[in-house]
Fold this sequence. Notes:
Bound molecules: ligand IRO
Largest sheet: 7 strands, parallel
Distance between the termini: 31 Å
Number of domains: 1
Order of helices and strands: EEEHEEHEHEHEHEEEEEHEHEHH
Helix content: 25-40%
Number of strands: 15
CATH topology: TIM Barrel
Strand order of the largest sheet: 3-15-14-9-8-7-6
Structural class: alpha/beta
Number of helices: 9
CATH class: Alpha Beta
CATH superfamily: Aldolase class I
Amino acid sequence: TTLATEIAGRTFDNCLMNAAGVRCQSIADLNKLIDSTAGAYVTKSATPVKRAGNPSPRMHTLPKGSINSMGLPNEGLDYYLDFVLQDQANRPGTTNFLSVAGTSLEDNLSMLHQIQDSAYTGFVELNLSCPNVPGHPQVGYDFDRVKTVLTAVFDFYTKPLGVKLPPYFDLVHFDQIADILNQFPLTFVNSINSIGNGLVIDPHAEKVVIKPKGGFGGIGGAFVKPTALANVRGLALRLKPEIAIVGTGGILNGQDVFEHILCGASMVQIGTQFGYEGTQIFDRISQELTAIMAAKGYTSINDFKGKLKTFD
Ligand SMILES: O=C(O)c1[nH]c(=O)[nH]c(=O)c1I
């Protein structure tokens, strides 16, 4: 039984990896991911220069999930680009993900020009769905804006690139975003980012649990799995086959991964629960998924990828 997967001709020995933003902001975090069972890593979404992000407390975890309003804290693109360039030199033949999240089209284009002109050979994950930068609405919810951004990007960018999308909640929106995405040579689409602007309350203190935005923040973890599965499936059914689906959202165990793959995911990213457990989660969930596959007689994820049954 193998958990190996492939996207755009790149092979990964495990279909599990971290979700951007979780334990991937520092070189120390990234090296722990390299040393783990994860098949790849993605770096914390970068802006052109280092950002402190929102005031703390800005993240809170409950058994059923997390809320965060980090505000895009990161070390700046150079830090992450230097890291991935060094890593690809150290470990030829491996592919990883560099996440970028400019707060303007100009910032995204300047970062992508820098990456295009560099020796980087890995994937870029263009984050169109950060819900926590005050005053900056999510690009992913403005379909015309998505088309404008991708048109500008693919005017020059030729290396493998995917987009990180927010969750959609209307089948017409799945149709509309898929129609736009299918017009571009995307390598993958990653669904979902956190469910934006949820609210978690501490009833004892009668108070919100995070400081930024009056307590409003992105929701992750078990809370979001049904929405994550729907977005993975909704896009898998609508996107051209050349665009791989990366599934993110609500992964706590091997069964959750199995469900994401059934819906069409080629790679699965773990956020909230990875933040809680650390890198040993990749061993635990790999064992759980292997056991599920063995019990069903599957030897590779391609045996069941995208094969979710319906009643009709
Ligand atoms: O607040 C953040 O840094 C953040 N938080 C999220 O939940 N998703 C994102 O894409 C980002 I850039």
